[in-house]
Amino acid sequence: MRRLIIFLVILALPVTAAAQSLINAKAPSFSLLDQFDKPASIRQLEGNIVVLIASDKEGSVQNKSWKDAILKKYKDRLVLLGVADLRSAPFFLKGRIRKDFQKDQDSILLDWDGIVFTSYGLTQKVSNVILVDAKGYVRYLHAGAADREAVERLFREIDRNETDEPKRPLTTDEHR
Known about the structure:
By secondary structure, the protein is an alpha/beta fold. It is 37% helix and 19% strand. It contains six helices and seven strands, in the order H-E-E-E-H-E-H-E-H-E-E-H-H.
């Protein structure tokens, strides 16, 4: 059992490191369809502050807390999108799963191949919250429940990105 736990921790480290290395980097590009077959891509949303709430089925229980907190404070000031990691869904249930998601009127991007989870280095079995600024750079990434501290950190980053000029990475000359 101890070896299994150590093995799982080692497997999780690269994902966490990969996700954290995205902070202040250009958001990985993706294009997905929502449950109503409406396309959305991260590049299409540039010019807006975007918050993605991504999870698999197990992590979806944490999504409502994030969504409610974000909408309460920022209702119309940003784009809030859900991303459902559906890699583990059997192919023959795709139609039924899409219909189940259609009960929710808010757009939920259906990630059948795990593109967002893989490219953003996200964590399964929890909510993942990603803040992308108006220029398309990742400014915040959190995996886990919407506890007070995590929500406050997200709000500080949203506020900073609403009031500041959009940030950009430093060029090689500016590092010197």
